[in-house]
Specification:
Distance between the termini: 20 Å
Structural class: mainly beta
Shape: globular
Radius of gyration: 13 Å
Largest sheet: 6 strands, antiparallel
Strand content: over 45%
Helix content: under 10%
Number of helices: 0
Order of helices and strands: EEEEEEEEEE
Length: 109
């Protein structure tokens, strides 16, 4: 299967997972797994949440951000990947002055 995110309509997710501002995303969902490209404006975040039934992989393709991962603040730079394993908690925070872009995969387990 080929996913062309350019052909998937962008959706806005205000206060995603309790975060600040909104996340804009081209999201594929097959009823079980999610794969998406997204962007967060300066000051936007994905709220802190726990992956009880899934893990998540976030690959930052543009910009620099921070991840709050199990209570520890980690720097995430362009070209780096953050992995949140099943049972762990995290939040993605754009505390920079520029938009960030990323690709995420959330496979149910």
């Amino acid at each position: 299967m080929i996913l062309d995110f350019n052909k998937i309509e962008e959706q806005s997710f205000p206060n995603f997972k309790g975060g600040e501002k909104s996340m804009e995303a081209h999201m594929f969902f097959d009823g079980t797994n999610r794969i998406f490209t997204a962007r967060l404006q300066p000051g936007a975040s994905i709220g802190l949440h726990t992956h009880d039934t899934s893990s998540e992989i976030i690959f930052l393709t543009k910009g620099n951000a921070h991840v709050l991962y199990n209570g520890e603040m980690l720097e995430l730079n362009e070209g780096q990947c953050h992995y949140c394993k099943k049972g762990d908690s995290h939040s993605l925070i754009n505390d920079s002055d520029e938009e960030i872009q990323f690709t995420a995969v959330v496979p149910e387990q």
